[in-house]
UniProtKB/TrEMBL annotation:
Ranges annotated as spanning the membrane: 59-82, 94-120, 132-158, 170-193, 221-245, 276-297, 309-335
Subunit annotation: Interacts through its C-terminal region with the PDZ domain-containing proteins GRIP1, GRIP2 and PICK1. Interacts with PDZ domains 4 and 5 of GRIP1 and with the PDZ domain of PICK1.
Protein name from the UniProt record: Prolactin-releasing peptide receptor
Gene: LOC115199590
PANTHER family: NEUROPEPTIDE Y RECEPTOR (PTHR24235), PROLACTIN RELEASING HORMONE RECEPTOR (PTHR24235:SF14)
Subcellular location: Cell membrane
Chief localization: membrane
GO molecular function: neuropeptide binding; neuropeptide Y receptor activity
Species assigned in the record: Salmo trutta
């Protein structure tokens, strides 16, 4: 970071493997820029970029810490309630639990290593083994979260639009979640195969980066294909699924005579559901769009991004992507009354002397497990 004579530490302070986010390609081009002989001065645009990044250190680090605390704590509570409440053991909540686990793992791996790599003047200080392990785990957790969000959207589509169709079994859900993890590992394999841990002993600097030396076409093909698979396709699936759900709910009419208060209550539920649907799609699109656009611009021509602001923009885009791990617990659990009720019930039981929390969770009335064919207008209440 401190601008040695070789110029290696100028652009190599990239915020680590997870900054590549949805594409799987990282800063090979950044490395090529950094290796240029900076015989000029330390005031090169790249070095100014490092100084600019350092000047925002006191703002960036607390933001990352806040993301980690909210992401880990929120997702942990969500997992805890699902695991310890037997009546919440259903297909939808298994998907949500998998999402919470991957988000929690993403917070634990992406953020600490990214920050350390971005601000440590010695670059990557965690050794060769951790270099490859982190480069494997970080994108895998991102892809798992994205694919699980897509699975939740499709599951809600079938439960709402086709309520008479048989829901998938627990065994099929297990196979699907296992397939999501295997697919994510498979998508990461090419990137891991081109990851290198390089030590510049004379400069006291180490990098852990992805390089496609002499394979520009292959790198671009991999970058754009993973962008399509992990952003464009899931976002399209979510939009289509929730659009169909919205149309179904809007056209749904409850049979029988309804009083004015019942009709108003139904309209209120529909409005709440429409707002939730909009938030779910918007959160996914907004959180992951900056890093996706950044990666596309970098792949087209790295000079499209001013080198003075390259690192700062990259890190802010990464921060925006990581904030999705904070949004998901609120969207899929905390905004729902039943989840909050179960959480309060569990904490109340913990305060009672001699009564295990599991007993409180399993002995409560009104089982959460939904009927085989829930009414369309109430289907989103199953999320809670």
């Amino acid at each position: 970071m401190e601008g040695s004579g070789s110029g290696l530490t100028v652009e190599l302070a990239s915020p680590g493997p997870c900054v590549a986010g949805m594409e799987g390609n990282t800063s090979g081009q950044v490395f090529e820029v950094a290796l240029q002989n900076s015989s000029s001065s330390k005031r090169s645009p790249q070095f100014v970029g490092v100084e600019l990044l350092k000047s925002f250190k006191l703002l960036i680090i607390p933001c990352y810490i806040l993301v980690v605390l909210i992401g880990v704590f929120g997702n942990y509570l969500l997992l805890y309630v699902i695991c310890h409440t037997r009546k919440m053991h259903n297909i939808t909540n298994f998907f949500i639990g998998n999402l919470a686990f991957s988000d929690m793992l993403m917070c634990a791996t992406c953020v600490p290593f990214t920050l350390a790599y971005a601000f440590n003047p010695r670059g990557w200080v965690f050794g060769r083994f951790m270099c490859y392990l982190v480069y494997l785990i970080q994108p895998v957790t991102v892809y798992v979260s994205v694919f699980t969000l897509t699975a939740i959207g499709v599951d809600r589509y079938y439960a709402t639009v086709h309520p008479l169709k048989k829901r998938i079994s627990v065994l099929a859900c297990t196979y699907l979640l296992s397939g999501i993890w295997l697919l994510s590992c498979g998508l990461v394999a090419p990137a891991v195969a081109h990851t290198y841990h390089v030590e510049f002993k004379n400069d006291g600097f180490t990098i852990c980066e992805e390089f496609w030396m002499g394979k520009k076409r292959e790198r671009l093909a991999y970058a754009y294909s993973t962008l399509f698979i992990t952003y464009v396709l899931p976002l399209s699936a979510l939009c289509i699924s929730y659009l169909c759900i919205s149309v179904k709910l809007r056209n749904c009419v409850v049979p029988g005579h309804r009083t004015q208060s019942q009709a108003e209550a139904q309209r209120t539920r529909k409005r709440k559901t429409f707002r939730l649907i909009t938030l779910v799609v918007a959160a996914f699109g907004v959180c992951w769009m900056p890093i996706s656009v950044f990666n596309v611009l970098r792949d087209i021509d790295i000079d499209l991004i001013d080198k003075r602001y390259f690192l700062l923009i990259q890190l802010l885009c990464h921060l925006c992507a990581m904030s999705s791990s904070c949004c998901n617990p609120f969207l899929y659990a905390w905004l729902h009354n039943r989840f909050r009720a179960e959480l309060r019930k569990m904490f109340t039981c913990h305060r009672r002397v001699g009564i295990p929390a599991n007993n409180c969770a399993t002995n409560s009335v009104n089982p959460f497990i939904p009927p085989s064919h829930p009414p369309a207008q109430d289907v989103f209440r199953e999320w809670s």
